[in-house]
Amino acid sequence: MVFNEFFLLNGNRRHQWIAIGETFLISIVMGMVSGWTSPSLAQLSGPDSPIPIDPHQAQWIVSLLIIGRIIGFVITLITTQYIGSKKILFLVGVIEAFGLLCLAIANSILWIYLSRFICGISFGMFTMTFPVYIGEISSPKIRGTMVCFVASGLTVGFLFGSIIAAYKTILFSLLALGINLIFVGSFYWQPETPYHLVKIDKIIEAEVSIKHYQCDVCNVKNEIESLKIFINAKDTYTYYDMFRELMISHNRQALINLNIFHILSALSGSFTVIFYLQILLTDARVTIINPADTVIALTTIGLVGEIMAVFVGDKLGRKVLLSVSNIGIGIAFIGIASHFLLLNYGYEPTNLQWLPIIATVLFTIFINFGLVSVPSIILSELFAPNVKTISVFICNIIGSLAAFLSSFTYDLLLSNIGYNLYFYFAFIIIIATLFVIIFLPETRGKSLQDIQEMLQNKL
């Protein structure tokens, strides 16, 4: 079904897939910015660096992307209610262009800092907006697949970024900027979502949007009336009202559970390790293959996990994907920590090279199988539209603060306890797995209304 609708673009959902395909392009750019980090940190920290940096500056290169994301979340929270998710995604491309230009002309660490901060802002806006946009235009049966598909662009982009940044930063900047401009030029013509158009009382445009995104034969009038009834019931909401509704028992419990999961995921180091893979493999004394080439190969292998997630995401369910993903990451972290432990005990590194290679392969496959995309799917599904923006904002802010703490303390912890740190990461990810199994609800195949009723019935 997915093959027919996406690759052949037939059926009533073809315009949904075209919009998602365009969103996939900006997802690639976001992934490229992240993929730039690992090879570039190794280069900038090396003896032949065009812009020499120390470990403290390397921490800021990683952390400024996260700080920018937090600013992006705030901008999105303030503006989404007024201009809609489609225009926010368009602005993501515009802001990203400025960040990439700063990187292209960078001749000092300050330009790199500015680029990372600006790209972080657009990354935060993208992360917070694309699940909302997909939730507003997509059919429930393929909503999860669409989110997984867009999220897979991060991995594709990460691969491109890892390959190109290993050779020339200016080439990286120009290629990323080119893809970004293609997105801006094509996505500009997409209509706003029906939900937002009804909200601002543009009914004729909303009818056109429904026909465009959904189908030519659906009952447009009924769709409009359903949206009107829902929006009119919630139209007088202030942010205070949204917070108050968010504190209703089932919403509050869902928010708490999601934030606990985001904190556990961030503190497990899963998203910090990505930025240090090349340095990790160098420290592991891997010589059978160049660490830079290994990172490229690992990212390519990681696509296997993304492809698997796209095609089984709406069959296995969110909890299964997350649980399998976390277990695989935990095994990988134990393998990495065990390798360095054996090195400390005097084992010959040449005979142990297979261990960090296999461990990092497992890590890249399993993080892309679930942890990269599934939290965004759950965020897009779990909350009613009237509290979705504020819920996504809170979850992303808390998750980013935890990620900032993890990235900023990584070198400090590594210098004090060495790669035993990865035993701690493995322990945290196992706790996260148990939390997913016990506390997170399964949303696969359910409409947004079904999900709300399920949450209420659980209390």
UniProtKB/TrEMBL annotation:
<feature type="transmembrane region" description="Helical">
    <location>
        <begin position="354"/>
        <end position="378"/>
    </location>
</feature>
<feature type="transmembrane region" description="Helical">
    <location>
        <begin position="320"/>
        <end position="342"/>
    </location>
</feature>
<dbReference type="GO" id="GO:0022857">
    <property type="term" value="F:transmembrane transporter activity"/>
</dbReference>
<dbReference type="InterPro" id="IPR050549">
    <property type="entry name" value="MFS_Trehalose_Transporter"/>
</dbReference>
<keyword id="KW-1133">Transmembrane helix</keyword>
<feature type="transmembrane region" description="Helical">
    <location>
        <begin position="17"/>
        <end position="38"/>
    </location>
</feature>
<feature type="transmembrane region" description="Helical">
    <location>
        <begin position="295"/>
        <end position="313"/>
    </location>
</feature>
<feature type="transmembrane region" description="Helical">
    <location>
        <begin position="254"/>
        <end position="275"/>
    </location>
</feature>
<dbReference type="GO" id="GO:0005886">
    <property type="term" value="C:plasma membrane"/>
</dbReference>
<feature type="transmembrane region" description="Helical">
    <location>
        <begin position="112"/>
        <end position="134"/>
    </location>
</feature>
<feature type="transmembrane region" description="Helical">
    <location>
        <begin position="390"/>
        <end position="410"/>
    </location>
</feature>
<keyword id="KW-0472">Membrane</keyword>
<feature type="domain" description="Major facilitator superfamily (MFS) profile">
    <location>
        <begin position="15"/>
        <end position="444"/>
    </location>
</feature>
<dbReference type="InterPro" id="IPR005829">
    <property type="entry name" value="Sugar_transporter_CS"/>
</dbReference>
<dbReference type="Pfam" id="PF00083">
    <property type="entry name" value="Sugar_tr"/>
</dbReference>
<dbReference type="InterPro" id="IPR020846">
    <property type="entry name" value="MFS_dom"/>
</dbReference>
<keyword id="KW-0813">Transport</keyword>
<protein>
    <recommendedName>
        <fullName>Major facilitator superfamily (MFS) profile domain-containing protein</fullName>
    </recommendedName>
</protein>
<feature type="transmembrane region" description="Helical">
    <location>
        <begin position="58"/>
        <end position="79"/>
    </location>
</feature>
<keyword id="KW-1003">Cell membrane</keyword>
<keyword id="KW-0812">Transmembrane</keyword>
<feature type="transmembrane region" description="Helical">
    <location>
        <begin position="170"/>
        <end position="189"/>
    </location>
</feature>
<dbReference type="InterPro" id="IPR005828">
    <property type="entry name" value="MFS_sugar_transport-like"/>
</dbReference>
<feature type="transmembrane region" description="Helical">
    <location>
        <begin position="422"/>
        <end position="440"/>
    </location>
</feature>
<feature type="transmembrane region" description="Helical">
    <location>
        <begin position="88"/>
        <end position="106"/>
    </location>
</feature>
<dbReference type="InterPro" id="IPR036259">
    <property type="entry name" value="MFS_trans_sf"/>
</dbReference>
<feature type="transmembrane region" description="Helical">
    <location>
        <begin position="146"/>
        <end position="164"/>
    </location>
</feature>
<keyword id="KW-0762">Sugar transport</keyword>
